[in-house]
Write a structure and sequence with these properties.
two-stranded antiparallel ribbon; about 50% helix; alpha+beta; Glutaredoxin; about 160 residues; single chain; 6 helices; 2 domains; about 15% strand; globular; 6 strands; 4-stranded mixed β-sheet
Length: about 160
């Protein structure tokens, strides 16, 4: 009886690890933020979504666990309903994170570094607005004033570029 219990415990643990390992790549292609938004972390998947939907992409180059201005931008803008209402209709959202204290898959690290180099990102947060084909439409960063003001700022940046 005890051998059966140990066997079932080990089998359950192995099954759980296998499910986690195979599901991890799909689950990690998006991250959730406040206000019900999800952000793609796989640039190619985001670009395919942008092409299919006809929406531009909003790329957030962030140091989510160490950059003070990045954390403020997330709390003051990205996590607010005003931003979510606009962004969910207007953009495919892409988070390109450069954490210092949390683990990140090597493929995502390499992708994020390559994109930062491609678009000349020099500091954080850097927000890029791109067409679905990857053409730079506008660049910005943290702006004071909260979500409503940031939405107006993004609308100004997009005016006449789509």
């Amino acid at each position: 009886m005890i051998k059966k219990i140990y066997f079932l415990i080990i089998l359950g643990a192995l099954s759980g690890m296998t499910a986690f390992a195979f599901g991890a790549t799909d689950a990690k292609s998006v991250v959730a933020h406040g206000a019900g938004l999800t952000w793609e972390t796989d640039f190619e998947a985001a670009q395919a979504k942008a092409k299919a939907s006809g929406k531009p992409m909003l790329l957030d180059f962030t140091g989510s666990d160490w950059c003070g201005w990045c954390i403020r931008l997330d709390k003051e803008v990205f996590s607010k309903p005003e931003f979510a209402a606009f962004a969910s209709k207007a953009f495919v959202l892409v988070e390109l994170d450069f954490p210092r204290g949390k683990p990140q898959p090597e493929a995502i690290k390499m992708q994020n570094e390559a994109l930062a180099q491609q678009y000349g990102v020099r500091g954080f947060p850097t927000i890029l607005l791109l067409s679905a084909d990857g053409k730079l439409l506008a660049e910005t960063g943290y702006q004071k004033g909260g979500a409503a003001k940031y939405v107006a700022h993004l609308k100004e940046l997009l005016a006449g570029k789509l």
